[in-house]
Automatic annotation (TrEMBL):
This is Uncharacterized protein. It is a multi-pass membrane protein. GO terms for cellular component: membrane. Keywords: Membrane, Metal-binding, Stress response, Transmembrane, Transmembrane helix, Zinc. It is found in: Membrane. One of its GO terms (molecular function) is signaling receptor activity. GO terms for biological process: response to hormone; response to sucrose. The chain crosses the membrane at residues 27-48, 55-74, 86-107, 119-138, 158-178.
């Protein structure tokens, strides 16, 4: 919810002044980072609940990546257009990091019949994040038709749609993880 709130505030007040615009964009991206970080918590907690060492390692890793990303966002020299691709790479890396615990979860839960369903949902999250990042970095479609997408259909808006789709896919997987942990236990 912080992600959506920070984005709404950013887009509502960013026209106030240049300095406020820059600050609110940083808050917007920090909200996205927070959503990515916290999206790892439910599946990793429930999947690795019986082996706390692993959920601590995975959650510490994604949290560290997120903190590094937020520091990067608030570092003025790294917030310049020159580092736009680098910042996008940080977001993509956080999304792709999910592959590591996903493979581990596959091995640990090989006999679980819902394994493939939850894996597809979580792969959906990664795909949605990557596709959204692709639109954002590629500045598609406004790069192809300048001026046509200034109000509706801008790459940043498309990016947010894909982030929301990723969140919904993740929510569906989290419900399955919760149900599975309630019935299986350690």
């Amino acid at each position: 919810m912080f992600c959506l709130l920070s984005s709404s505030i950013c887009h509502l007040f960013c026209c106030h002044s240049h300095n406020l615009n820059i600050f609110l964009l940083r808050i917007d991206y920090a909200g996205i980072t927070a959503m990515i970080i916290t999206s790892f918590f439910p599946p990793i907690y429930y999947i690795f609940q019986c082996t706390p060492r692993w959920y601590f390692i995975y959650l510490a890793a994604i949290t560290s990546m997120g903190i590094f990303t937020i520091i990067t966002l608030f570092t003025p020299s790294l917030s310049s257009p020159k580092y736009r691709g680098f910042r996008a790479l940080l977001f993509a890396s956080m999304g792709l990091f999910g592959i590591v615990p996903a493979i581990h979860a596959l091995v640990v839960n090989w006999g679980n019949p819902q394994r493939n369903v939850t894996l597809l949902y979580e792969l959906g999250v990664a795909v949605f994040y990557l596709v959204g990042t692709g639109f954002f970095v590629g500045r598609v479609p406004e790069r192809l038709k300048p001026g046509w997408f200034d109000r509706v259909g801008h790459s940043h808006q498309i990016f947010h749609v894909f982030v929301l789709l990723g969140a919904l896919s993740h929510y569906a997987a989290a419900l399955l993880f919760l149900d599975w942990r309630d019935h299986v236990g350690c």
